[in-house]
Amino acid sequence: MKEKDRPNINSFSGGKKFLLSILVIYLAVAVFNFHTAEAAVISFLKMFGRIIPILGIVFVAMIAINMFFTRERTDRYLGSKSGIMGWIYAVISGILLLGPPYVIYPLLGQLKKRGMRNSFLAVVLYNRNVKIPFLPPLIYYFGVKYTVVLSIYIIVFSILNGLLLEALLKKFKY
Amino acid sequence: MSVKQSVVSTFQVFKSFMPVMIGLLLFINLLNACFRDYYTDIFSGNPVLDPLIGTIAGSISFGIPVTSYIVGGELLEDGVSLLAVTAFIMAWTTVGLAMLPLEATFFGKRFAIIRNTINFFFAIIIAILTIYTLKVL
Lengths: 174, 137
Description:
The complex is a heterodimer. Chain A folds into two domains: 12-68; 71-174, no CATH class. In chain A, 77% of the residues lie in helices and 0% in strands. Chain A contains eight helices and no strands. Chain A starts with 14 loop residues before the first helix and ends with a helix. By secondary structure, chain B is mainly alpha-helical. Chain B has one domain (3-136).
């Protein structure tokens, strides 16, 4: 395996310490308010149970990305050479991509390693909020007009978000 | 990259980020269990301050967008302004303070901090623009 394709293990080295510190916080909360800690654990187990199948899909998708999204291909569609189509792909991918951030980050992380532009990552992440399955409940609570206006602003601001993020990343490069 | 190399590489990534992810999910569920009953109490009724409070509350909350719509709907019923509720919903879905360590792990610290800072201000701007546009239409 090439050096550049190898995951940066050092950047995750604090993960186990982080998990341990959260477990200590849980113990502390349980001592003072057992029911809150218990409710949080039950809620966590339900949430984790729901995401296990999604993680399976992410695992397979990441293998596919590793195999088929070569640096050249990623650069052509989502990298510096993609032009206006890259922005369009990013907006559409953001709207269509389903799943919570903790399962989307690994996928996008793989694409970033293969040359996906930071601005496009920001656009994809921002447009996750224009989810077609989530539109009916938004309409139910706030109305059609509100939903349409808000969705249009999210798409427009996702582009601004990408441009601004890339400019600031260049400005604060050190 | 061959199938075997891809599987090994993906497995390494999973092995590395799972403790962070499990820790964050535990943390988020603990925060939600502690604070979910207090959303209405934090709004002051001040038209200038409430959107900012909404954005801060949304930034530290976490969950699927539908949850923010439900909470937002309840806040509206309790008399919180649509501007503050919109800022709350936008921040809920675009600013992820709880997810910051995971985002930084995959995209870098600077990326995560700058993106979430931009999104914080964009939540307020989009809320103002949305309400203004709805008044004009």
